[in-house]
Amino acid sequence: MAKRKHNTQNDDAEQKQEKDKPQEKAEDKTVIAGEGEQDEEEQSFEELGLDSRLIRALSKKSIEKPTPIQRVAIPLILEGKDVVARAKTGSGKTFAYLLPLLQKLFADSPSKKSSAPAAFILVPTRELCQQVYSEAMSLIELCRVQLKVVQLTSTMSPSDLKTSLAGFPDIIVSTPACVQTCLSSGMLQARALQESLSVLVLDEADLLLSYGYEDDLKALTAHVPKRCQCLLMSATSSADVEKLKKLILHNPYILTLPEVGDVKDDIIPKNVQQFYISCSARDKLVHILALLKLELVQKKVLIFANSIDMSFRLKLFFEQFGIKSAVLNAELPQNSRLHILEEFNAGLFDYLIATDVSQTAEEHNDKESRAPRKKSKKHSKRKLDAEFGVVRGIDFKNVHTVVNFEMPQTAAGYVHRIGRTGRAYNTGASVSLVSPEEMEIFEEIKSLLGESDSVDSKFIAPFPLLSKNAVESLRYRAEDVARSVTKIAVRESRAQDLRNEILNSEKLKAHFQDNPKDLDLLKHDKVLSKNAPAQHLRDVPEYLLDPTTQEASKIVKLARAAMGNPSSTRRKGFRGKFKRSRDPLKTFSAEGPKRPHGAGMKRKGKNQDDGN
Ligand SMILES: Nc1ncnc2c1ncn2[C@@H]1O[C@H](COP(=O)(O)OP(=O)(O)OP(=O)(O)O)[C@@H](O)[C@H]1O
Predict the structure, then answer these.
(1) What is the pLDDT of residues 500-518, one digit of tens each?
(2) Which of UniProt's keywords are assigned here (predicted)?
(3) Which CATH number does the domain housing residue 407 bear?
């Protein structure tokens, strides 16, 4: 293994750390990843001491070199240290713990087969359970080793939970509440766990407490053996993370990225360019229509709204213009949600409208969601899934643009939303539509990011590609269609979508048990409106397009072509090739009087179906 060069604030203490001496005074060891170390940039997975099987598996996933957090975390975890890793969204934290965890279990298996698991990976939401489970399974399959991973969630029946545990899994991916249910019901033997548990991971640790898992985690710590290695992964640092650190870890290494020290630097990926458009709440529909229909943003696009009704309003509105989209929200059955995510990740559709309905700690504490539902609640209001989390931590693949149709309620929510693009070595952009009523939260976000005159991506700049003319050219049609999307139409389509998805959900479950790779079974972006979209609204006629907008759209398309097919594999070595000077969002202004390059080019009407 190559010699690591870490900036360790407390090298002496490092020597003293011993896992079986938890009574030792806890002393933080802060390691700053890659600070001033040129050669660390070049470090390979091999040099970090990673097993060749895992390296081959990564290579098959087109992952060739570690991210900064992986460079520092992997060797420390392999050495058996407790680690707190704080790194921004999309920085590759999952592999930072999963790779060394699997490697350790490769070494133990099959000699140490036990009746209880060797590792717990605890996450706040069911979506994350599925995501981490899939990543782990895929690595294990590619490495062809005998390790068993199961995911346990609170929607599983006691008999399903028992069946999953009966196969003696090596790794359990679950939420703290579900593990606690298994322990208190005796499905998981606390005594066996004392013998077997060697690694405990708390992923998305900054969210675990706000999702109401404090009591479950406290109860769990009693069963975690002292020699168990504990890893805590988080996108932000917060009082909750500190609390968890004290509760579970023994004298851990604190890993941070170089620019840490300031919240804003800590959390915003540098490769996301952030933009805003100021407009009235009423004008948001025409603005988003212009962005999508005139192709001024790159696909795939993740659009955030603040309510489920607004999501369906958007979907119905888009449908009339031939723009197909799917809605993802907490009301849908879990199988449907997972399937929507998989289809979107596989590139089956380009526009996903997500609702990150904010759920209070009270809702999350609602234990009812963890216990079997009472039949008498038949007529109660539709319940949102308390373990649903669409924004936090979910790895949407190849999202190029995040649009905040409505601004999130908190600055932290904004950070997590825009963190769905620009993941790992990819680039992305975000466009926020800000109404006067949302100015307060917008100012809060700006002060979190830091006001700056520079064009640095941390600064939210006005979106340069959308001209007033372009918006006005679509206004009449947009307002006409918006009027037809009534509250009743929204309610009906929302109910229709839910009915479809409930029916599909069982089919999906059965189908995917037999055909785990088959994604194209039931598409989620089908038209919901009763009236078929009018043909004339699908096409933007030539006379409505001004040359500046045409040029902007052309540049966005060229940029997309330069980046390769966004829906296919990850673009290797893209970073650095697409420099700021060639970046249309940095160099083009729709309001400016720049002449289009091809001034004499023939003007074409846009005849597009933005669906699939
Ligand atoms: N070394 C790497 N090179 C290229 N891509 C990577 C690398 N490591 C991870 N990725 C990819 O980067 C994406 C983001 O990784 P991951 O989900 O682990 O981020 P994260 O830090 O957990 O983000 P969040 O805080 O939002 O959950 C994933 O698609 C993952 O496959």
Answers:
(1) 777 676 666 666 666 666 5
(2) ATP-binding, Helicase, Hydrolase, Nucleotide-binding, RNA-binding
(3) 3.40.50.300
What is the distance between the alpha carbons of residues 363 and 225, in angstroms, rounded to a whole number?
Answer: 31
In angstroms, the CA 418 to CA 544 distance is: 32
User: What is the residue type of 19?
Assistant: K
SS3 of residue 527 by DSSP = coil
- Both 235 and 181 in one domain: the answer is yes
Q: Do residue 285 and residue 414 come from a single domain?
A: yes
- What 3-state DSSP class applies to 466? coil
Ligand 1 center to 424 CA (angstroms):
5
Among 260, 288, 316, the domain boundary falls at: 260
Statement to judge: residues 223 and 345 lie in one domain: no
**What's the total number of domains in the chain?**
2
Please tell me the distance between residue 395's alpha carbon and the centre of ligand 1 in angstroms. 7
Ligand 1 centroid–CA 471 distance in Å is: 36
Flag whether 199 is in a domain.
yes
Give the residue numbers spanning the domain of 120: 30-34+41-260
CA of 393 to the centre of ligand 1 (A): 10
What is the C-alpha separation between 63 and 55, in angstroms, rounded? Answer: 9
- Measured from the Cα of 416, ligand 1's closest atom is 26
CA-nearest residue for atom 25, ligand 1, is: 89
Query: Which residues have CB under 6 Å of ligand 1?
Result: 63, 66-67, 70, 87, 89-95, 235, 393, 395, 419, 423-425
Tell me, yes or no, whether 574 lies in a domain: no
Nearest CA to ligand 1 atom 12: 424
* Ligand 1 geometric centre to CA of 512 (Å): 25
Contact 223, 232 (CB under 8 A): no
Residues 325 and 283 in one domain: yes
Phi-psi bin for 144: left (phi > 0), alpha (psi -120 to 50), beta? left
Domain end, chosen from 235, 260, 285, is at: 260
CB-neighbour burial class of residue 243 (10 A; exposed 0-12, middle 13-18, buried 19+): middle
Residue of the CA atom closest to atom 20 of ligand 1: 90
204 and 322 together in one domain: no
Q: How far is the CA of 129 from the centre of ligand 1 (A)?
A: 15
Q: For residue 510, give the amino acid letter.
A: A
Q: Does this model's pTM top 0.95?
A: no
At residue 404, does pLDDT exceed 60? yes
Give the pLDDT confidence of 584-608 residue by residue, as tens digits: 444 444 444 343 333 333 333 333 3
Q: Please, what is the angle between helix 334-345 and helix 126-143, to 10°?
A: 60
Q: Is residue 23 part of a domain?
A: no
Token output for 373:
């539902």
